[in-house]
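A quick aside before the break. I want you to see a complete sequence-to-structure record at least once, exactly as it would be stored in a machine-readable document. Don't worry about memorizing anything.
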Amino acid sequence: MGASSQSRAATAGDTRALLDAAARAIRDSTAAALWRAADARADAEELLDLATGTAHAARRTRLRLSAGPRRRFARLVARRAAGEPLALIRGHVDFRGLRLHVRPGTFAPRPSSEALAGAAIRRLQRRPRPVAVDVATGVGPVALSIAAEVPAARVVALDISARALVVARANRRRLGLGNAAFHRGDGLAPLPTTLEGAVHVITVHPPYVPRGEVRDLPVEVRGYEPASVLSDGSADGLGLLRRIVDDSPRWLAPGGWLLVEVSPDRSRRTSAVLRRGGFSAVRVLGRPPDVTRLVTGRLA
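That is the input. The structure line, written in tokens, reads:
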């Protein structure tokens, strides 16, 4: 979208034309090759809101943009067209009613993970002293949702990324969720020994992309998110999951649950890993158009 076309649209007061041009720029960019036209339009509208401080559709279409907001909008559109995730441009995501800050170098929570949090919450709500562990927590969406919706729960969240944990702890403080704690470390290793045999639910959205497939991911994923949140470095992408499955019986209470979010093409192999690890009642939840699947298993 060139400066002259922006100027003509703004001079005419036609923000609709401005949005159309921005949507085309986003949709037609190399980085956005897989996006749908509807997504590009929605992105353009949100970027205009960010540039102008306007968040009402009726007012948005009557705006006459001055030079400052027009330049801000052009910069935001260029960032999105280059592949930068909208969550990073915005600086936050809304997840199960919680506003969570995100920063460059962290994994931006996906709406699909709300199902993982919901499944954990349902399994914890009726317990008198529920304990939950969230592995690969990132900025804390699942852990903080559990802490908010099950106030009686003790929630322990783990990640290897110091940068992600800085943001997660800041989110916890801002939300006032004192029943969640964040620890740095690999897999389940950071858990205190006092939790042995006491955990009711372990949740994990593992980095499941095989190491040989990372280069094939869209630019907005591989170009803006840490390699450690995309792949655990294993040939099939299930290395971290196997370690968690092997270690979980030490920590889970009898009848405790392991809940895993994976891509649809990994769900069958994930189920097999849980069964080989001694889990029963293994099920795959979710169906198209869901972009991920939830694999659940119970410790006998």
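Two observations worth writing down. The chain has a mean pLDDT of 89. Strands lie at 92-95, 98-101, 131-135, 154-159, 180-184, 199-204, 252-262, 279-285, 293-299. We'll return to this after the break.
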